[in-house]
Amino acid sequence: MKFFIDTANLDDIREAKDLGILDGVTTNPSLMAKEGITGQDNIYKHYEKICNIVGDGDVSAEVIATDYEGMVREGKILASIHPTIVVKVPMIKEGVKAIRYFYDNEIRTNCTLVFSSGQAILAAKAGATYLSPFVGRVDDITWDGIALIQEISDIYNVQFFDTEILAASIRTPLHIVQAAKAGAHVVTCPLNCITGLLKHPLTDIGLAQFLADHRKANG
Ligand code: G3P
What's the CA angle centered on 16, arms 14 and 21, to 5 degrees? Predict the structure, then answer.
């Protein structure tokens, strides 16, 4: 399973990269705004900075347009910024058309704002490279986000779809484990969810004991 970090914060991206487990980055307009990145030129430059930190890994950059022509125009510009850019397109009718256009023109896509298996089938049929079901936001309305990942995974497996399931809106370390079990190919989440995987009290107790025994024996 691949690990993407869901942020536009360069320090967090560097820290995840330094950990040695980073496979890519996802962003969205809210995350870019959170970092204070505004104006089209600055946004494009920021994507370039992210790509340069990540290296070979994929970087999702989202279109703002909601009409087919606009998405195609914007997607082509985004894809020209760096070879690792994946154009993020919302799951709307015009988005499905745009995903097909990008597929036919060898531009990779991440279909975002996915909340149902029907949408997942449509995105795969259109040729999306990645599919982003929003686990946390499904949980927010007391439906089951991980069950959605499982259902999409089952469908993609029996249908031999190539689209990779990118579990998004991952909010906890437990979500990562559950998404892995349910068949997600990728998870994207904030840095603290990834580092949260490290935590176990028995690891801390065990390490303290080993070091104490070493000190006792070695003075
Ligand atoms: O990748 C989509 C993600 O950023 C949404 O996460 O926590 O805003 O629901 P969240």
Answer: 130
Secondary structure (3-state) at 174: helix
Tokens of 161: 């779809």
123: nearest Cα among 87, 159, 163 = 163
Residue by residue, pLDDT tens for the chain (219 residues) are: 999 999 999 999 999 999 999 999 999 999 999 999 999 999 999 999 999 999 999 999 999 999 999 999 999 999 999 999 999 999 999 999 999 999 999 999 999 999 999 999 999 999 999 999 999 999 999 999 999 999 999 999 999 999 999 999 999 999 999 999 999 999 999 999 999 999 999 999 999 999 999 999 998
CATH 3.20.20.70 fits 2-217, yes or no: yes
- Shortest-distance Cα residue to atom 10 of ligand 1: 169
Q: Are 122 and 158 in contact (CB under 8 A)?
A: no
Those residues whose C-beta lies under 8 Å from the C-beta of residue 143, and which sit 6 or more positions away, are none
Cβ(27) to ligand 1 under 6 A?
Answer: no
The Cα 186–Cα 179 span in angstroms is 9
In the residue annotation, 34 being an active-site residue is answered as no
- Which of these is catalytic: 17, 45, 88, 181? 88
